[in-house]
């Protein structure tokens, strides 16, 4: 039987509302989720690594996780930079000569200082000097954008509003645990006239929430929430968080702040005339910052798209099926190629040709036909479902005769017969249709 | 006169062979090149920044430089990962618990230690302990790939050859100048059987050189050269450099090493059985590493594509024209939209519609119609040529009547008339045709 009859959704990872599960259950959920991410090449093995991933920090990703994050960043970039031609991409430095925070020092230099036969006072002085000279690593992308405000202002002929977009690595100062971490951040810094900043904050909150929901299987798990007054950052007059409800609790994916212009003024040493815009009042613009954590974004979409289904087979046998129903645009592997019965050498040749064709068309393809371990069709489908592979194609001796292949869909589990020459167009159209919804 | 008659190439930036120019000339060349990069939004202003750029290090990029590097990285990724489905993308951590090199320390922690009333010996001990606990930042992408070898081996069923690709930020230990720097690196680490490693090194050298030349206006400035024996890295038995001949001297863009398996064994503490592959002899694979500096790549393509032409106008007037003839795939701005004579409000509306359409089709568009400073058509073309804008479109009252627009090509300087509805297809086809050559 090719199709899978879903009896009932036993535990849908993406809707935690219904499940008033005990903490132990939730821990088990988390554990099995992490295991799947490791087994299916999203996250590299290792306990420390899983721990980083789970905390919403950068971890070492496997090939599928790498591609998923690439897709996510690409979509983010496309969505913010296409906004009316008023958003410009920038790329600023990670290291700077700032005064505080995390510094990069060379071990050897410190050792040299410590090895010298000097007095305690001289030692302290030399280390302080070394620290001062050492570059700082960035902890956010905001500062870079504020610094780029003046040259960008020329670019837009001093006209508001406009935005500067950037994605990149940021470091996080060590917490109590004493261990620094890194995060892949996205940042849009929006400069607008003071009287419109609150409206822009609302605008961007709507836009960003819409964006997250667009790729979700269960959009209601994404929500926004106003930051309570007592938690506002220094300069900010208002803040909004975009949250994702994981089965084990809500976490922040993105934060929007209405920051006023104090930081902008400080960054440019109060040189108001350089910062003024042509908005009638010659005012110094206000800043709305939108910064996201795309490592946690990866985890949110993985968690959101994981469906666990079960079906009865015979009397006692209860079969479980896990499917990673990632949005077609985000799913790393669009198609897997496999061979069935028939002359292996010829079938592999056909697969090789298809693989080349798909990869040239930028369709990420999984070379399942290179696998030498024998597995049943059922086992293979189960594996691909857990990987979130959109379609799997079976090439068999039939294909050599009449050019027909079998295409199985992840989402419907239905197998269709199709001519081999139609495959590429079918896949391209399917993905771009999903993109434009 | 719309077309520009080129009289002779006075100083072609991309062919330095012919120019036996004096050092002072070369310095002037470099200075004017850097100025153009800053003026045309490739590199952010500031002397320190230009200095970083010039040294082939990461700098703060403007919107066009950001897009150019994005395009370059995208092309690199596509070119290596499509190779027969045997290359997998990975993403490893920047910070690690390695023993040497650059460390990230928190200023506050050091200050706390220095402020304590302790003996010199205790002080030294505490600082050493802090250093030990502090994470190191990576200086290359090789180590991460070697660490990911074992899980990747499972993925390919222990079959050679295969590769792991990654792009990302690396830090460079401070040289004599005492200042650390960052570089955007690309890395392909190729695992193959010992007896084929030298052939693979040749294969990848050919592939990589072909790739660089593909996007060049003057391909002969890119070359490869065997690393002399006395300059070989520790573990390596052979090395090849891919060089670019800048007008002011040759620089390395990419380096390929045949590294043997010593580092792989060291990284996995000599556990041979974990590393062995199914190639008949159960050998530990050899490593061919290919690592590139994409910041220098950006500079190479900018330098390579800059043409300086001059024409005579009347008797004495010698006009100079600089054109950044970046490859259509790399050029950041594919099209600029401008308005001519006619009702401004209506014309801007037409431009706004086109902008939206192009951006949705992922065609980077320059909103020239938003500029309020009046410039002549000549001045505008000159500016776009220096930006490397492929096409500029003029929307005028004519367009409102019959839908016709004027399209000027950067490379031919010819103006064509076209119907507005054909524009998007024309641009998409032009770019993809250039991509598939």
UniProtKB/TrEMBL annotation, chains A, B:
Which Pfam families has this protein been placed in? HGTP_anticodon
User: What keywords tag this UniProt record?
Assistant: DNA replication, Mitochondrion, Transit peptide
Quote the cellular component terms of the Gene Ontology held in the record.
mitochondrion
Query: Is Mitochondrion there in the keyword field?
Result: yes
Q: Which domain of life is it from?
A: Eukaryota
Compartmental location = Mitochondrion
Please list the residue ranges annotated as the Anticodon-binding domain.
345-428
Q: What is the lineage of its organism?
A: Eukaryota, Metazoa, Chordata, Craniata, Vertebrata
The protein's name in its UniProt record: Anticodon-binding domain-containing protein
């Amino acid at each position: 039987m090719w199709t899978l009859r879903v009896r009932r959704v036993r535990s849908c990872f993406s809707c935690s509302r219904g499940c008033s599960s005990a903490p132990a259950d939730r821990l088990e959920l988390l554990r099995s989720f992490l295991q799947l991410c490791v087994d299916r090449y999203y996250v590299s093995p290792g306990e420390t690594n899983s721990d980083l991933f789970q905390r919403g920090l950068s971890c070492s990703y496997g090939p599928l996780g790498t591609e998923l994050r690439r897709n996510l960043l690409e979509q983010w970039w496309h969505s913010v930079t296409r906004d009316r031609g008023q958003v410009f991409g920038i790329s600023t430095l990670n290291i700077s000569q700032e005064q505080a925070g995390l510094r990069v020092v060379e071990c050897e230099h410190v050792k040299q200082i410590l090895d010298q036969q000097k007095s305690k006072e001289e030692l302290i002085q030399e280390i302080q000097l070394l620290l001062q000279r050492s570059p700082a690593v960035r902890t956010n992308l905001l500062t870079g954008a504020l610094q780029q405000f003046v040259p960008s202002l020329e670019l837009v002929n001093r006209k508001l509003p406009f935005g500067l977009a950037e994605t990149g690595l940021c470091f996080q100062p060590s917490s109590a645990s004493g261990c620094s971490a890194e995060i892949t951040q996205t940042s849009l810094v929006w400069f607008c006239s003071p009287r419109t900043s609150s409206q822009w904050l609302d605008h961007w909150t709507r836009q960003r929430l819409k964006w997250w929901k667009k790729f979700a299987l269960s959009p209601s798990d994404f929500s926004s929430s106003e930051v309570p007054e007592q938690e506002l950052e220094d300069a900010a007059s208002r803040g909004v968080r975009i949250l994702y409800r994981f089965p084990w609790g809500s976490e922040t994916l993105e934060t929007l702040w209405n920051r006023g212009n104090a930081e902008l003024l400080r960054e440019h040493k109060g040189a108001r005339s350089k910062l003024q815009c042509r908005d009638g009042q010659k005012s110094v613009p206000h800043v709305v910052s939108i910064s996201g954590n795309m490592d946690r974004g990866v985890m949110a979409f993985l968690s959101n798209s994981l469906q666990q289904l079960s079906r009865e087979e015979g009397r006692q046998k209860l079969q479980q099926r896990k499917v990673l129903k990632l949005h077609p645009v985000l799913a790393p592997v669009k198609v897997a190629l496999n061979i069935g019965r028939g002359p292996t050498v010829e079938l592999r040749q056909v697969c090789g040709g298809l693989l080349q064709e798909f990869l040239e068309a930028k369709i990420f393809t999984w070379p399942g036909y290179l696998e030498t371990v024998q597995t049943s069709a059922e086992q293979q489908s189960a594996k691909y479902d857990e990987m979130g592979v959109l379609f799997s194609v079976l090439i068999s001796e039939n294909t050599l005769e009449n050019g027909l292949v079998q295409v199985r869909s992840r989402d419907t589990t239905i197998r269709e017969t199709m001519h081999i020459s139609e495959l590429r167009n079918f896949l391209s159209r399917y993905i771009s249709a999903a993109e434009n919804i």
